[in-house]
Amino acid sequence: MRTKDEGKINRIYQATVDLVMQVGIAGATIPKIAKKAGMASGTLYIYFENKEDLLRQLYLHLKSEMVSVTFGALDKSAPFKLQMFQLWKEFLAMAVEKYPERIFLEQYKISPFYDEQVMEASIGWVKQAEDFLEEGKNQLLVKDIQKDLVYSMMYGFLNELAVQHRRGLFHLNDHRIGDSFGLLWDAIKA
Amino acid sequence: MRTKDEGKINRIYQATVDLVMQVGIAGATIPKIAKKAGMASGTLYIYFENKEDLLRQLYLHLKSEMVSVTFGALDKSAPFKLQMFQLWKEFLAMAVEKYPERIFLEQYKISPFYDEQVMEASIGWVKQAEDFLEEGKNQLLVKDIQKDLVYSMMYGFLNELAVQHRRGLFHLNDHRIGDSFGLLWDAIKA
Amino acid sequence: MRTKDEGKINRIYQATVDLVMQVGIAGATIPKIAKKAGMASGTLYIYFENKEDLLRQLYLHLKSEMVSVTFGALDKSAPFKLQMFQLWKEFLAMAVEKYPERIFLEQYKISPFYDEQVMEASIGWVKQAEDFLEEGKNQLLVKDIQKDLVYSMMYGFLNELAVQHRRGLFHLNDHRIGDSFGLLWDAIKA
Amino acid sequence: MRTKDEGKINRIYQATVDLVMQVGIAGATIPKIAKKAGMASGTLYIYFENKEDLLRQLYLHLKSEMVSVTFGALDKSAPFKLQMFQLWKEFLAMAVEKYPERIFLEQYKISPFYDEQVMEASIGWVKQAEDFLEEGKNQLLVKDIQKDLVYSMMYGFLNELAVQHRRGLFHLNDHRIGDSFGLLWDAIKA
DNA sequence: GATGAATGAGGCTTCATTCAT
DNA sequence: TATGAATGAAGCCTCATTCAT
User: What UniProt keywords are attached to this protein's entry (chains A, B, C, D) (predicted)?
Assistant: First the structure.
């Protein structure tokens, strides 16, 4: 028996991400996804229970991937502020390189498919971010303030920059990376 | 002849906003909107050309309403930082009281319905915000930094707080309003 | 009490005829007819029971008008062949000048609105044509052949010329009027 | 996978033709066609792009079928007048046996669906008829007259006979076939 | 009489999903 | 496993008709 083809799942994922970027999550229909992935629509149902399942799996996959990419590259031995700068650069780089994926994540979160269950399964990211900030607090580098506020600020800022970038209104370069980090750091530094 | 009822437009708007919050913009179908608004689906087409038109009108309506509510309450004779605090409170209050409307605005912006034309018609808000920040710069209170970065930070932060609030993860009180403004002010102050 | 406005009926008739020519009988909707006639759609229902009634009345109106126009102009004292030529010219002229009306008649006849009842009410034309041909037979100028065949030939020929004319494939001039009559006369002459 | 069933196309064609005869082209809706053809309405869209496409394909199909049936049976070695009689008989037979199809063709031609493109794709018939008449002219058997007039006469006559037949007003038998051909031949003979 | 807002049935089409091959 | 034909529910929109003004 041939095993389920891992490559096919990736083609489905890629097709979905691309399509959502082009036409939004509502326009990403099964026939279109299948066509873009180069297979019959029925085949999708071999790999996923239904559309909801496909989107959920993709969401969780991307979410975990992004967390590991950004936090994974962190040099934990470096000074905190440097680590933070590193993290910020990673985030911004991701917003540029992987913005189709970001778009998908954003769209999914506000779609009818996103439910409590998925939300709970995806808090790993928040946890990592909060742990990281905790370390900053311990070193008296970060304000003693509720973590969720700091997190909201970082995440919202990042997200908006990604949106602006997608619209061609935000051009990334070293200077602007530095400036944006300046804003961020001044906000949270103790 | 029954006269065209202005109140009906508001019922349609309200129904749309509520529905988008519940099921997303993709799930807000014409039949559902009509039912929620208590009228036949055909009636919608007396007031709006089609679904796209309805969403666009609603978007522009809410956008302008929000701009005028927030900036309108501003006491222009007050010191800059105080004005800013006032603005931030207004924004947060709006995010709490009108979060269904905010959700609609966010969803619409990333939907296939949002196009260049609408974007251009809605830059009033950005203009107002940038003008306000310019004043801060002139008084040497705000960093001399690209305005769009500051704007992105404010808007993104605000947006994320609204999202958190919707999920019941963010509880607004004077203390937290003060803390969040603290983050914001430290970020941008000169 | 104002009496029903005869002029309005004519505006409705004219609008319907024009519209049917432009978009076919299926595309001639009540809202469009009303708009073209310069009145509200509800007004149509003051003058006609419903759409079916409007079309039937218009059909009967045009049919009788055409019969009286063509046969009415006939000089009954002239020699038969001359009368026939006259008639043919009248028919062709009508096909050119009133082709929107012809189109309506043709479309109506094959629409779901055309029923037995209307058919029977509109045989006046056939009767007149057959009476006329009878006279030709009596003068031994027309073949002694079933009248319906002759009628079918004349009517069908005429109709097809009208269709060709509408498509710009048939250009009417004295020469071609003469030629077509030549065909017709040779067909039926004794 | 279920293979695309060619027979299904024929069932769709047949259902459409029957329905158009019963309720006109405006009354032949997709749901009704599908029901008559014994399938779900969505299935139609596997075989045809949309309603317009279905009608166009059917038109071209019937047109070419009719041309090949009538002209195909022609014995080109026979004398011209005999060939012509043969042709006329074929036409009339077709008008009787396939009058639902004829109705469809006529209705389609005056519907909004009929456009330049379809017209050009269907001139094969006219060409064949004109070529045939040309041969008659060359043999000095047919009047030297514009071909389109002769064509219009034949086609219009035939068409009207078909209409009469549909209404039960025209009964086909050898005698009447002969008489009608007599009219036709006398009209065009040199 | 005249208006046109209001209705909801029904048309065309697409979609998620199933299942024969 | 893979295919894509088949399904019918559901979406958007228009229409004929009614009726409050």
Answer: DNA-binding
